[in-house]
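Think of the structure tokens as a kind of shorthand, similar to the way a musician reads notation: each symbol stands for something richer, in this case the local conformation of the backbone. In the example below we present two proteins back to back. Begin with the first one, reading the sequence and then the tokens, and try to describe in your own words what changes along the chain.
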Amino acid sequence: MIDFNLSLQTKDVNVLSEAVRTWYQHNRVTPTERATQLLCSAAMDLYSQGHRTPEELATLLITRFDSPYSLKINATTSTARH
């Protein structure tokens, strides 16, 4: 039987959720399903890289996706800017 530590999983989800909510509040936009999927995926990648606080994750999300337009498919990424 696999022993899942549910309190740790809930804590992790709460950290990720708070970071994504902060991104939306910072950009003053209403959440959409597509944007939330992208932000959650990015937050999970950052979390797996060792960024563990909501503040740190939110800062990195805000830096990576500096506006709602940066979430659009085919949008210029920050690494492609000159």
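Once you have a description of the first chain, move to the second and do the same.
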Amino acid sequence: MIERGDIHRAMVEQGTSLPTLDPDEIADRVWRMDVPRDEAEAVFDALTPAA
């Protein structure tokens, strides 16, 4: 689930807690893949805690 989205807001209002992804992190990774082109792919994993 992507944080701060409509579905995320609705689920939080209902008291549901699900793993989430930060949309700012997604945007940053997509930018790096397109502009400097220093990454060929990116993996987003909401189930594994960040190190």
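Compare your description with these statements about the second chain. The chain has a mean pLDDT of 87.
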